[in-house]
Amino acid sequence: MHKNFFHDILKPVRTDMKKSNSTLVSVMYDIKSAYASFSGKEKIIADFLLKWGGKSAESSITELAKKIGTSEATLVRFVKKIGYSGYQHFRLALAKESVTANMQIFEIPVAANDDIADSVFAHTIRTLEASRKLLNKKAVAQAASALTNARQVLLFGLGGSNVNAQDAFHKLLRTGLTCRTAADFHMQLMLASQSNGNDAALVFSHLGNNYDTISIANELRHTKCKVIALTSYDNSPLAKLADIVLQVSPVHSSLVSESFSGGIAAAVLINVLYVEVMNNLKDSGLKSLNKMRSTIARRKV
After folding, report:
1. Strand, coil or helix: what is 36?
2. Tens-digit pLDDT profile for residues 162-206
3. Would you tell me the crossing angle of helices 72-81 and 40-52 to the nearest 10 degrees?
4. Virtual CA dihedral for 35, 26, 251, 253, nearest 10 degrees?
5. Cα–Cα distance between 47 and 57 in angstroms, integer?
6. 179 phi and psi, to 5 degrees?
7. Are 125 and 135 in contact (CB under 8 A)?
8. DSSP state of 57
9. Based on the domain organization, do 30 and 167 belong to the same domain?
10. By the 8 A CB rule, do 192 and 201 touch?
11. pLDDT: is 175 or 31 the higher one?
12. How far apart are the C-alpha atoms of 186 and 181, rounded to whole Å?
């Protein structure tokens, strides 16, 4: 998963640009300033962005290119031409311009008179319902079968997605399956290199486009390990490398709410996988669970 998008928005987003910060006022300003130098294809992109503004930041590069009617490569060249290091960098800057202070604080749309607790619970319910409708139950069954029959289960995730990887490790360890994970990227890459075709890996990434996560997935493909991707975007680079894709629903009402909703939906999907695996294991799974419970119980006062 990409690192928490909310935290990225609150950071300075243009310190690595070719131009100095003092000359960069806003994304819209950059586009308008360079408009005369654009080619015909670039002007089509510029016109779309000027018309839709911050709403464009809700789309992945694939989605936005399709909406505009251009290629991903042309879109990347465009954002680099106006001073951004890549699409994700451009997207962060555009999102930051369109996000209100209230949304930056709460990560979800909260009006001044709203009850915060009610708003968060309502948002969570909508997220889970959307994810339930999107859930591919056949893919879930395939993933559970792959995990159940694997020599070992490997859990991968970076940044905020490592929380999901650790949660999955904690749950699946109860089943009696051999599970392995690590928090550090290099350690995860080392784990991936030691896998083989008898193993299964759960790879977590909200956006599915983090370079390091993609490196891990590529290594898993190289070792012929079965890759199960849990992501919000089924057309992401990670999804394209996976044998099985489990998609959770991002909430498109505001970009900053995606990490909020994605994490919640991922946690529930982990529980679904856990129950599916336990159902597959039957008595052996129950025996492992009871053994674990007995061991933990001895440590309680």
Report:
1. helix
2. 999 999 999 999 999 999 999 999 999 999 999 999 999 999 998
3. 80
4. -90
5. 15
6. -120, 145
7. no
8. G
9. no
10. yes
11. 175
12. 12
Structural domain count of the chain: 2
Long-range contacts: 24-28, Cβ < 8 Å, 24+?
24/83, 26/97, 27/82, 27/90, 27/93, 27/94, 27/97, 28/53, 28/97
Residue 13: the pLDDT is 39
Domain assignment present for 107: no
Of 64, 98, 132, at which residue does a domain stop? 98
Cα–Cα nearest to 149, from 178, 192, 115: 178
Tens of pLDDT, residues 232-277? 878 789 999 999 999 987 654 443 445 666 788 899 999 999 999 9
Residues in the chain: 301
Q: Which domain holds residue 52?
A: 5-98
At a CB cut-off of 8 Å and minimum separation 6, what does 275 contact? none
What are the tens digits of pLDDT across the range 276-299? Answer: 999 999 999 999 999 999 999 998
Say whether both 71 and 160 belong to one domain.
no
Q: What count of other Cβ atoms lies within 10 Å of the Cβ of residue 87? A: 20
Q: Is residue 109 part of a domain?
A: no
Residue partners of 136: CB distance under 8 A and separation at least 6:
245, 246, 247
152 phi/psi in degrees, rounded to 5? -150, 150
**Are 137 and 281 contained in the same domain?**
yes
The CA-atom distances, in angstroms, between 205 and each of 145, 159, 181, 212, 232 are 21, 9, 15, 10, 8
pTM of the predicted structure, to 2 decimals:
0.67
Long-range pairs, 123-126, Cβ under 8 A, ≥24: 123/251, 123/257, 123/260, 123/261, 124/261, 124/264, 126/251
Q: Give 20's pLDDT tier (boundaries 50, 70, 90).
A: very low
